[in-house]
């Protein structure tokens, strides 16, 4: 009698990859300066301020999963992707630490952000240390040095995307100077897509994939990242605070230039929207107006376009079937999360 | 008739290397996000806030000179060391930007520090961008990827040294918890020595030096860095403000844990020194007490020890004679600057 095993679901895929990567990630962080290691551990949800063990929610580990699946998709054992997984998780942690400083965001995963808990200077330092450790992880991994070009290109794009995002908040809401959807896509590709693409590509490269496959996976990851950011924008306005861990309408209160808002601002229905943005007491009204102006549906349609593009690229690359299936599962999960 | 050319003096060596490196450094910075490129240009003294061209004093360019001389010492053309020179100057600029935030230091080379001129968030971002660009510069240079291990190790040590330096200010002035000279040396080696050693080693590696020579040069640069930091400490207390660009006794006012101070605190003559530190109005008195307790002469003696160690290592390595001579000239210059 043959039992057909159901393919793993997304949370199982994520959990399996987190488990595979965790020892190497802990070892890397454990080699840091003790003070900096504590801040890193706090940001991963492993400890409290002062170092007492904790089991606070860390991230879902999307980036590390992409690196492991990238290696598996190349036909290698998932363990081949672990140095890539560690590197991209360290880069992600670095960018969260520094972005929270730049955005003045005092809360991260329902806890005080590192800069709020430890001070701005120490948080800058901890971010730098995570960044340096990411580079070191790849530079010292077997086969790693040749892949550092992928990481450094992603780092450059990440910083470029963050610069654009910061500058967007200062742009006018109307007239020729306002942010265009094209500018938004470039920002989201840099800020979110570059590292997701890098995770997949790095994992595949360490798994021995040919250069063309690595390139296709990098592009697939970038599309996934744009879709991810678009869904994030929708959740930032209409998400359930109990699920997102952020206040309802938070992005509207903070006057963040998200995709639904910039689409709405370009619609004739927008009317008084510019006057409502950044005013916490008018956030509910603003959200209704953005929805009426088609901002929500446009963002979701755009996210679907990029998810489809990612899917098409994955279908085109010569990947190991099992891993490819799990990549598709993960992709669906991320595109539809909590919507 | 033969004319014997006098060997170049240190300022000429530095100027020659700056000239050789400048086009590549400008090209690298020119490829950054325009906003970030302006902050980088401001930090190099190339422009004012807003982007208007300036010729403000940049650094002396010690690190880029070491990279160029490292390549020449390996028997290569100095141009072989240029990617290394660009990378270490970018790392140096990154560390100055972030250190000024961490130390709350509002002035750098007689101008407002980047965080004071552009804001803390943008300065964090600009530092990150410089860091990423340094890695990218080496990752994309011919022969560069294999040397990234040298850079990443230096980055890790740099951050570790900065962490120690920040924590030193919180340590007590007396009793078993006070900072020891050994701890100081480790801090200075990380904070200053690692990048100087990396500059020499990277240049030599790109110049084709054998691994053993690269290792010896890295160690020589680390000793030079410790000596450099010790001289900096002496100048921070007894330096001429017109030359250093910093207030007299500045380090004593800020309660910085420098080598002269920690030696003095270990002496029976120290007496009331702990009570004077961090009190601007008592800084002159504190400086006299540190000197009477032997802090100044001990720091200079320690600097000489490390300069001698660097010199001995350079003498031991098989280096091209001309470049080795210029390295010695530079070393003497740095060890004796403005004392």
TrEMBL record, chains A, B:
User: One Pfam family this chain carries?
Assistant: polyprenyl_synt
Q: Does the keyword Cell membrane apply?
A: no
**InterPro entries, sorted:** Isoprenoid_synthase_dom_sf, Polyprenyl_synt, Polyprenyl_synt_CS
Name the source's superkingdom: Bacteria
Indicate yes or no for the key word Repeat: no
- Please list every transmembrane segment annotated in the UniProt record, as residue ranges: none
| Assigned keywords, A-Z | Magnesium, Metal-binding, Transferase
The family database entries (Gene3D superfamilies) matched by this protein are listed as: Farnesyl Diphosphate Synthase (1.10.600.10)
Q: Which family does it belong to?
A: Belongs to the FPP/GGPP synthase family.
Name the chain's protein: Polyprenyl synthetase family protein
